[in-house]
Design goal:
alpha+beta; eight-stranded antiparallel β-sheet; 8 strands; 64% helix; elongated
Amino acid sequence: MRISLLILLLNALIFTQLSASAEDDAKLKGALLKAMKKHDTATVKAIADGGHESIDRDDILQMKIFEYLDAEQQRVIQAKEKAAADAAAKKAAEEKAKTDKAANIEAEKKAAAAAAVAAEEKKKKDAAAAIKAAEEKKRKEAAAKKNAEAKAAAAQKAAEEKKKKDALAAKKAKEDKARKAKAAEKKRKEAAIAKKAEEKRKAAAAAEKKAAAKKAAAPKPKAVAVPAAVVAPAAAVAAEDAEDTVAAEDAVTAEAVEAAPLSVSDKELVGTWKQVSSEKVITLNIGKDRNFVLEQVEDDGTLTISGTWKSEENIFMMSIKKVQRNVHTRETDIHRIYKVDRLSNHRFVLLDKRDRIAYDLKR
């Protein structure tokens, strides 16, 4: 009991020291990996569930945590099973020793009686063996005839099976060729979609830059308090020359933000948003029932997180309840808070705590 208490105190001290230096990501991850190596499960759970952003956002590290906890659980189960098996083996050995001793005594008693019976039995067996030998000879002759007939039938069946197998192989080769062609076409379309999305993003950025340049070049009137409803149409006029209508709408939104703080409406958030690039495709489904599902598809697999969401002014919050990497799933309770930088009918931009773009989504 005292050793367990000391271990708990040591784990609490380690966790407190790690929490005090949360900004030192490398040290925190190093402590986590060291705890995994020493099989210090209590420390691993404390760090994984501590709400550290550097741990929570590292998908590879999250998968390592999941695999480590699963392996530790299997190790404990195997240790218990081995202990139970060892105990059962010991008990079985003791029982066998008792049984062997009793069997030896009984065998000695039966040996004398068996010796007398054996001579009589041998005489009977010799007579039976002679009869059996004659029957066996007859059976072998019949079996030889039957085998010859079976070989002829087997040869015919083998020829038919080979014909069927060759036909199936040809069909499979044709299907494989069609599947590869379909996969190549799908990959080409995905590349075209990603390229189009990138060109659209660049066009939107150029339109926004052009609108900002026009605004900067225009003569600045004296400062007058103007309602946001008036500023937004003026910004739309400045963006009329943009090549992309989505970029124009974003420019209007940016000008409106300068006049009044951004206020997020739950109704505007609900729906499906996407972010497409050459490396990955992100899909965020925001439901009216306050549930969300974020799916990130990459070359090495799919990461899916789900939970509940809520918004307050220009803040968007995710409460993550489940994380799935390909076929591996684990329950969690992680909270992520983002600042809404842009929100329009076609664009939704989220910033992290360091004001870096976390997601640039469109629909």
